[in-house]
Description:
This protein has helices at about 1-20, 25-50, 60-85, 90-125, 135-140; strands at about 155, 160-165, 190, 195. By secondary structure, the chain is mainly alpha-helical. The strands form two sheets. It has a two-stranded antiparallel sheet. It starts with a helix and ends in a 13-residue tail after the last strand.
Amino acid sequence: xxxxxxxxxxxxxxxxxxxxxxxxxxxxxxxxxxxxxxxxxxxxxxxxxxxxxxxxxxxxxxxxxxxxxxxxxxxxxxxxxxxxxxxxxxxxxxxxxxxxxxxxxxxxxxxxxxxxxxxxxxxxxxxxxxxxxxxxxxxxxxxxxxxxxxxxxxxxxxxxxxxxxxxxxxxxxxxxxxxxxxxxxxxxxxxxxxxxxxxxxxxxxxxxx
Length: 209
């Protein structure tokens, strides 16, 4: 039910904002929103009331009596909720405005936290990664700065894992072949100990992201 409560709160805030933008007085906005909410509760009450006398006959008369009493109790509770929501409608638009201010304050704190996290990643994590490594690529992707990296990829035959090149875009030179024994990449693509060119069936030629 929490997802419906969250959706209802967001819808209420948006509705008050739209009504305010159209010049609808706060008191009238309160009445409109309260009418919608009380009507929704009343609709639920009418559905519950229809369950009266609908207990499974196979469960016996005692079960049926308890069923009907439960239906009556729930129905009366829903009527009370509708009455309460309607009677307390005054000032709801002001309350919504206060809630909007609170949400804006929360979002501001969240943005400040994200800024501190980004600063930590940029100043502490990034300098500790080595060039042309998967770890560095992941950090740059998290910072949104991987746009200049090569997008060539291949599949590691033994594991089936997709490997993404960790070098800069435009580095590839098919004639600059690496000496495989010491693992220096030359102009080919590289990710960790994997070195490959664009001629393999599983490879995708490099480009910028």
